[in-house]
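Convert to structure. Protein one:
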Amino acid sequence: MHYAINQSLIVAITDDKGIIIEVNEKFSEVSGYGRGELIGQTHKIVNSGYHSKEFFEKMWKTVRECKVWKGEIRNKAKDGSFYWVDTTIVPFFSEEGKPFQYLTIRYDITERKQSEEMLHRQDKLAAVGQLAAGVAHEIRNPLTSMKGYTEFLQLDETDENKQEYLEIIMEEINRVNEIVEEFLQLAKPQALTLEMKNLVPIIQNVVSLTEFEARKKNITLFSDCNDEEIFVRCDENRLKQVILNFIKNGMEAMPDGGFIKVMTEIKEDKVQISITDTGIGIPPEQLKRLGEPFFTTKKSGNGLGLMISFKIIESHLGNVFVESEVNKGTVFKIVLPI
């Protein structure tokens, strides 16, 4: 019984000030911290920065009133990775009704949260795809007419000022047309040419293509593939498009320079490609909205590029997970079957 509990539940006991006085093996296993590193610390040691100050104030208010608190918390492991836990905090109180110890029982729900995120994104993509198909065609027809007449006016116009205005009109028409094209990409199924390819040279090729641009921005870009050969069934060009998009996102998040690392890790029957930057990070409330149309954390952009990237990976039967911490950086994780 004791063994079963120790293998499934993450348990900690704290004193009335929240100082950890006892933990089980599972806590150390999931968090990556040794027992000696956890004892004497508060749970701030695994704080991911995801939840607000008010979130924890409400939690503490509940347990100090000698009530059981239940909720879901995102924690940060010693290696910097994030994990979700379903948490129950039980206060123990004295005869005077004051809490003197807290028993915290958690179990790891990271996989469930990732599945929920994936399903939510798929629903969003499906809804946007349906909307995009109708709207894009409705916009495209008048847009074609506007472009044709503007080009016609440019042929006969000799006034330089008017020519300048017409050029601005053409630029804006082309910009709208690009958005329409992106909408159409979301609306139609991804036409993939799937072949067994070695992932390592694909990653190295994208890194070498963007290395010069990175150096100009004082960014150190490098790849770290643990294996010489990792074969995946993929559309090479589409996969390159996604990796390139995530690298460029990282560059834009580091106006003063920094590091971008592209690495691979094999996990059972899957390979994970991580694109990690040391940029400004994304606040939790914005992180939840990543992949929504017309939502972007950048000064320019429309958010459709990320949606298209997510859809490409999902067409490969893979997933994309995003983790971020403000002022520390962001990680895009592409998970593909091998």
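Protein two, convert as well:
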Amino acid sequence: MPPPGRRIRLLLVLCGLGFAIVLGRAVQMQIIDGDMYAERASGQHRVEIVTRAPRGAILDRDGYRLALTEQARTIGATPSLVTDPAAVVAAVAEASGESPDVIMDRLTGGGEGIAHVDLARQVPPAKAKRVQALGLKGLDFAVEERRVYPSAIAAPMIGVVDLDGAGLAGLELQYDEVLRGVDGIEVRTEDPAGNAISVLTQREMRRGASLTTGIDREIQRAAESITDATRGEFRALAVTAIVLEPASGEVLAMASSPGPPNGDFRLAEDADAVRLRGITDVYEPGSTFKAVTIGAGLATGRIRPNTPVDVGWRWDLYDATLRDSHPNPGRKTATDALRESSNIGIAKLAYEHLSGPGGKDVVLAQWIDRFGFGEPTGIDLPGEVGGIVTPYREWSGTTPLNIPIGHGIATTPLQIAQLYATIANDGVAIRPHVVTRIEGRGPVRAERERVMPARAARQLAQMLEGVVSDTGTGAAAEIPGYSVAGKTGTTKKLDEDGTYSKRRYLSWFVGFAPVENPRVVTLVMVDEPEGELFYGGDVAGPAFSKLTERALIAMGVQRDRPDS
């Protein structure tokens, strides 16, 4: 048994420890947490009030709203207070457009003990008001916002937001941070009656900025109508159309068929309907790429419009054989070869003047890079890819024959449209862009770069004008009263075994008008047309003609060849 003195000391230590604990708790309650307990004692409480920033609108080039935000209602329910579930389900289903089964699942799917459920969101105020007027027990109505797209055009470009207003696709995603602004937040204390006592912290709400685009509603509608009609006429897998303004780089229209039902992104049943094939998919460009080959030759002085080339019925080189789709053997000029889209003529010109003996000269490869192939254009839309370009060091014996005529390389339709926009713009490339102005920040300035000499670009434009003539492959792309320069393209698609198909084609036409003062560049690409017609001039040429004429008229461009 410990001596009495030791027991006394132990008792004093324990008493001191207990006193310290009590003192510490008192200090915490009175000093550290004093405000909290004082609030509780007086009935005060802290609240956080969030003021949602209105999302900015998306406008076309004339200021018409393509996307805007308006008020809506969330219809909620407290299941335990609902006395007539059948009536609630019927009323909410009618107002929201959703099926009664879905509404019933939301009402009853949480099981017992669920305090509150949202039965329907984004309900138009007028429809929600009719439900509210029924006086059904257990329902409540909260104000929220919903995004609407009144024009029902350009859905894949404009994009869509989720139920909470966050961008999911298109410009809505690309510019989400700009469009959504900054929510306002106020943290304050209130008395039991909800009266503000003091503001603790505050952040001002900043509304989202609106975007002005270069989209022309009339041209966009024409693009969507013509791509749909062309796909139907040729029973094609898909059709893509792009219209650019070469002097500014602005996208006037971009359409893909099939598109979303009724132009509503939210009604699309699969990704195909909202995919912007013009920037997300790559294809062999075929003869449209011959402009790169001739452009490289003109820019370097190695090829002139009258440079001669011998074209035979076939050309055998490196165990490969080239033939022309429309054989016309004889001694040609470079202009002839481009006008007739001679594979043999263009490949020989490249081999003799750009690739050098054995195809070892890097000139063509350098100009492919200079024209921007292998890299995205930088358009302000999500999902753009850069295409597929074989690095020069990996070129094989037949590569110098294939690349000059657009085989063995993959590009997006936008990259080809950008190539022709550069030619139309006297050799200056401008980054294609959809948004032209951001509210509060001013105009968007797109990057510019001189790619080829102006003289070479004008020579190439004149050569391409010959394609759209009675003796060229693009006669069907002619537009009454307007001069047109452009190029056809026809490519066999690859089958699953890696060989070129004998029945699946890509049909292209791309060009610009008027030739002397180009106002629009238009591209049409038809994926897998069915039937006897599959050449680019026959399939894509007429669609190009219709769309380009509609665009020129919409822009008020006078006919420069009124007698043609």
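The chain has a mean pLDDT of 89. The two ends are 125 Å apart (CA to CA).
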